[in-house]
Design goal:
The mean pLDDT is 74. This protein is 57% helix and 17% strand. The protein has 122 residues and is an alpha+beta fold. It has a domain of 39 residues. Keywords: Membrane, Transmembrane, Transmembrane helix.
Length: 122
């Protein structure tokens, strides 16, 4: 995807006023400066996605392969999906750590509540 941004800057400068006893002359000079800025954003498709699409096309367009080839293609698909699975595992681990923090916070609040109760009433 390509994005082009154009910026126009107008500058007005140099206003000169000349005054004599009988005649008043005003001279205004306007300078216009145009600046064009082009920003290019390139969206790239990863090699993994392209390989997955190619594999999907192979499954859809070609006749059914022998069982060993099917097994090899499924193994290749698993290898291609491995980074996604690792990312999912990392997200689950982060969620687990967040829940552990919440549990520790609740335990801490529970402890302080009963400590305050014990200290205040006994």
């Amino acid at each position: 995807m390509h994005t082009t941004t154009t910026t126009t800057t107008t500058t007005t400068a140099a206003t000169t006023t000349t005054t004599s006893t009988a005649i008043t002359t005003t001279t205004t000079t306007t300078t216009t400066t145009t600046t064009t800025t082009t920003t290019t954003t390139t969206t790239t498709t990863t090699t993994t996605t392209l390989l997955l699409l190619l594999l999907l096309l192979l499954f859809l367009l070609l006749p059914p392969p022998p069982p060993t080839t099917t097994l090899l293609l499924l193994l290749l698909l698993l290898l291609l999906l491995l980074p996604l699975l690792l990312l999912l595992l990392l997200l689950l681990l982060l969620l687990l750590l967040l829940l552990l923090q919440l549990l520790l916070l609740l335990l801490l609040l529970y402890y302080y509540y009963f400590y305050y109760y014990y200290y205040y009433y006994y």
